[in-house]
Each structure stands twice: as structure tokens, then as C-alpha cells.
Amino acid sequence: MTLRKSFAAAVLIAGPFMTDMSLALEVNITADLPSVQVSHNGQKVTIMRNQNQDNSINPAFAKTSRKCPPFCIQPIELAPGVRTIGELEMLHYLKKMSDGDKSVLVVDSRTPDSVEKGSIPGSVNIPTDRLDSAKTDPTTVQGIMEKQFGAKYRNGSWDFSKARTLVLFCNGPWCGQSPANIKGLLKLGYPAHKLMWYRGGMQDWEAMGLTTVKSGQ
Known about the structure:
There is one protein chain. By secondary structure, the protein is α/β, with parallel strands linked by helices. It has a domain at 72-207: Oxidized Rhodanese, domain 1, CATH 3.40.250. 25% of the residues lie in helices and 16% in strands. It is built from seven helices and nine strands. The longest helix has 12 residues, at 87-98.
């Protein structure tokens, strides 16, 4: 296997991602990458594209128009220093987590009822209102920041030196839940370079025919 010159391929070395080369898939993720195995709630899940070439997008993500506000199209660059990523980069971070890298956390920012219908394998659900100090108590916010994100509150301020890189997503380019989480974290001082945004969210993930998991799986 060789690295492609594009950035996406530069971060995705094909070899470690291969699960079973004996699987002769007709619909690969990339030409060199048939599938990716990740861990979700302690179980191994193989992420691959739907092999039914007549498959169409989940009707839940087929609507083109929703009332704006609140469902307004988000910009490509959400905030200075926050990197917008696509599916291949998301798979890269999911694989890092599954390989035991504690420096990364993939966060589904949606409400639990949305997550119940399907989410990205390997992600952790932290709804937007759980990080909003106006909607929840400061103790809850601090608990998430310290126990899940790896930040430390010391002498009245946050220490992010060992904080995890967060990869956040929600329903799609028109969804404001992960942008709200990111903007809230930035206000708390979270380093922008430790925040990644999968703008396409579940709408693009579903459009690519990639594997999803439901609550309890």
C-alpha cells in the first residue's frame, strides 16, 4: 500500500485499517480501503458502505428544507482554528480511539431521541444542552469537561494542556447542535486546534451509505 498525495490519504495509512482482505466488497470506502473496524460500547463494529447499489438515502435525511431559523446552513469554517473534516478524517479519528488513543473523543452532539435512530459507531453522545451552563448546572459541565474531555479546573481557570482532541458532529450542514457545542467550548477557553467539526454529520454519513448503530447496540 502507498500513501496518496492528498491530505485525506496522508492521514489514512491503509494497512492498519484493513479488517479482512478476503472480503471482496464491491462498494469500498476508498479504492484501497474496504472497511474500518472500531469499538462501540465495548463491541467491535465494522464500518463499511452499504453493498446494495440500489440503496437510497435514509428518508429521515432526504428533506431539503427545514425552517430557518433554527435549521440554517452552517459555514464551512465555523470558527478560526477549528478544522472542518470529512468522512475519511472521521474514520481516522474513530480508528485512533478504537486503538486505545485516549487523546481523541468523537462526540455526537444531538439529542438522545435522534441518537436512538442511529449514530456513528464509536461516538459518545453528549447533547448540546449538557454543555450549556444556561441550561444545566455548572457541576454537570465541569464533570463532563474533566471526566470525559480531560481538562482540569485549577485556581479558577481551565487547564487544557492534557485535554482531548474532540471531533464533534450532529445531523448535517443545516444542524446547529455541534456548532453550539463548539462555540460554547471556545468560550470556556478550549483550544481551537483541539476541536474538529464533521460538518456533514449524519446526513452526509447516511448519504455515503456508511454503517450506523442504534442505542443499545
